[in-house]
Amino acid sequence: MNNPIKVWRELKDTYIRYIESGLPLSENYYNRERRKLYDEPEAICQPPIIELVPRYEETKTLSEVCNENNISQDFADFAKCGLFPNVGGKERKLYKHQEEATVEAVKKRKHIVATTGTGSGKTECFLLPIIADLVQESKKWENDRPRAMRTLILYPLNALAEDQMIRLRKSLNSISIDRCGARNWLDKYRNGHRFYFGRYTGKTPVSGKKGKADELYKKEKAEHIAEWEGAKESGNEDLLYHIPCMDNDSAEMWDRWSMQTAPPDILITNYSMLNIMLLRKQEDVIFEKTKEWLAQSPDNIFHLVVDEMHTYRGTSGTEVAYLLRLLLDKLGLHPDHPQVQFLSSSASMQEGERTKNYLCSFFGVKFENYVDKFSLLKNPPHLPIENRPQITLPFNELVAFKEIYDLFGLEKAVENIYGTTSTSSVVDLVKTYCVVDSLKYAMQDSDKRVIATKTNNLSSLLFEKQTDEQAQKALEALLIILCEAKEQNGVAIQPIRAHYFFRNVEGLWACSNPECSEVADEFKDANRNIGKLYRSPGESLCKCGSKIYEVLVCRACGEMFLTGYNLKEGSKNYMVHSKSHFNKDEKELVYWPYKKIENEKDDFKYWYLTNLNTSNGGYTLTRLGTSSIFAPDKEYLAKYPNTCPNCNLKFRIDNEKSFTPIAKHVTGVQKVNQVMAEP
Hints:
Helix content is 37%, strand content 15%.
């Protein structure tokens, strides 16, 4: 990534094109108006947020750490296959706190708490000892190796668990054409055994019992396989780690039935699901097999990982603490048992009596055992606070750099700025103009901490007297140059991280008046039958004085409909934009502006000709109506019409969750993630 702002623009454009292709509207003027809506700042995404990545102290390679501490070199070799891959043909060095985690947890068998900041590799602090134990134990495995939950990773949120799954797929389930993936290594050195892992949450398929939910299982499996095959065909290796692997020799267990039969070595869940698992019979096998495995050898260690410990405070923290005691008791363990190891992380925990009391109380460890049992890992970053540099950033030269970069590419842009600034390299340029110090100064908050900052704020702080457009150009040039500035060993002078936040499209709204005065001239058309488009509901009335309703779209032809709820006042009916206690039992109305349904077939039995008063939402059913409204009775199962009156696309309705051709204008979370991950 040598231009984080360009990456953001391309992602935004890709997202909008996905919306336009996945949710096409019937007329081009509607499509153009919608694109303009989503092009507005912060409509579907935030500006990029730039973070200066702290430089943490590095120490030794994992091979060196293993050699010095009598830890199997097999562990270091396996880690190179995914968890700690080589960079540029050279073995990576561990951060100081990662080295300490390996020594303290693997060699000394201490409980560890990683207290370093965000992005400091805290996850590796608990994955290193977990994988070290798996590699060591697997030396003894024969054909029938014991199945047990050797590690339980507990997360407060499903989103964090999903991120962990990506890391585990890379660390334990990678495969490569040059035979250096995790599965390749296990095939060669562990007789094809796998280090199994699985996410066990409320979203894990398939709920229900075998026999009763077999068809649902088959459907889920087929969908997973189709998604996996599609990801492989895309040629994007990174995308493969964002979805469950469906290869026959995969280490990932994607369904709960498999995990209930043969528990994975590493199980990821949240405390709500763990509470349910401890109470239900169908998960008993997971705990029974783990208890049997622990009884087989005192060398078998159960790892309990609690990430983001700072979230477990107060009453909820107490509940989780008791839940962990119940778990250990079910496994035949207790907090001070030599076969249990706690691995945790928190970005906001400091050494002291308060921390000691909290950790011992939370995990149930005796206070007198704290010093012998716990190790807090610290490694403060080297990110000093700077005063504003005396030298001024070369604004005009940076703007010229950006313009040449856009026209002729990086090489020409760099060549030009060397001449205009009398510098000889990007490193020289960054150091001469104190670029890093300037960024640190601009990114300080009121407490003098260097924090991640939005690009629009950063550009105005760095180039406060310039126009927004020119300031953005200069900032983009500055970030490109900083990304290119590397020391002789290839390490960036100042690593940066870009954060991109995109939101799902949760609907589209429109004025109900086809003569709406708020429609921009460029989007007006004689055939237009609804008013101005809105990306959020906002007010219920358009500035033209007419009612605003949510838009529905036909998946096939892109025809637009408006939806609301019936409100009856005396003998009059009104279509209102939201539910109230007066109409809470009403089904949604679907309004088709200025279209008549002539077809009398059963497909259109709930459609009626109507006239809608766009100023107050009042409507009457009349044969003289100039538009149509869909008003189903309570017997109708689906939420929306099962047949599009414009293109006649028809879907079968089995229950209230059945898909209909007419649906809300929304995007799906998983699909958007896939769109963002694809090249």
